[in-house]
Amino acid sequence: MTRSTVLFSCVLMGLSLSSTLLAQETSAPTTPPPAAATAAPAAAAAPAALAISAPAAAPEPKFLAKSYISVSGILDGYYNFDANHPGDGDTQLRNFDIRANTVSLTEAKIVLAHDPGPFGIRADVGFGSALDTMHPANPSGTGLKYVEQMYVSLKPAKWKGFQADFGQFVTSAGAEVIESGDNWNYSRSLLFALAIPYYHFGLRTSMPVTSTITAGVQVVQGWNNIFDNNSGKTIGITAVQAKKYYTLSGNYYVGPENNNTDHGYRNLIDSTLLLTPTAKFNAYINYDYGQNRNANATNTGIGSLEHWQGIAGAAHVQATSKLTATVRAEYFSDPNGFSTGLVQKLNEVTLTGDYLFYPGILVRAEYRHDHSNESYFLKNNNPTLVDGQSTFELSLIAFFGPKT
What we know:
- The chain is mostly beta strands.
- The protein has helices at residues 3-27, 34-37, 41-44, 48-51, 129-134, 190-194; strands spanning 70-82, 102-114, 119-127, 147-154, 163-170, 199-208, 213-220, 234-242, 246-256, 265-275, 281-293, 305-318, 323-334, 344-358, 361-372, 388-400.
- It has one domain: Porin (Beta Barrel), CATH 2.40.160.
- The protein is built from six helices and 16 strands.
- The longest helix is centred in the first third of the chain and has 25 residues, at 3-27.
């Protein structure tokens, strides 16, 4: 090849490179794409020759910026020894750990979640006695009995912390939750089992009011139902104040809850004071008062008024990094038999010990004694009831992924 040919080829390459750079410059957007806003300064200052050595990556769509789904799960089982050996095989006053003197599954579930940014989802799906208790009336063919929670969320960045959830979600009331591993005791309190709902279906909102106070409003179908039992709706008002050494929460639900009529309202006042004075000692006090105005025989006018109330307290000690201990005591009054089917006053004391056997595996042992001022508890197959019940439980809780 002659020198003139080489020179001519170099000129052609230079013209081609200049035209390419010119085309890129004239077609570039006047504002950078979203990905460019987060690029490191060093990349922006790279030489032009490096910039054209490979095509620039397409900007990531905003709705995919946080499109990951977190996956977690829980496997929760127990053995319950009931000293009364009830003839029907069920320990009374329990909701999730029902079966006596046998090994049972409380809950096995998978949680799929995506934090709202601005849109989010959460689905808790599983089976076990906890889900059976939550959905006793839902038709088995619908598949809804396997759902603990399932909702979509909206939390726009410019709305200063406001969040709205729509779907099925657990109630805001109570000091305890459905997941055993997130409670201090294994058996749920009388208040959790008898005084408050488990879940709602509808709209839930929350909004930071100050740096320490968050408030919200809920519009839901009612108590523990996805398909409403009447045409009325229940309104919930929630508030939480979180400080360094305590958290105070209050919830109020009101709405018609009698079947097939909008007459007669149910009211629930729930409050919990959580004390956190040190990292190794916590305590709480939970109070609930509820009342239900029954409709009369023709579902019109004013019927009888039934009410219930109770108070519970618990103290939790972190003895070591693996060992904790909790004592709980409570009192529950059912003067109209609305919650238990019998006019009575109940109290119970529970002692619970936890051992973190391995990260993700929790072993829990518990002793509990319940007492009534009336003969209420089954004993063997005897037709005569007794006023007390003592149980001992040993449970294994396994979990993976983010804490649920």
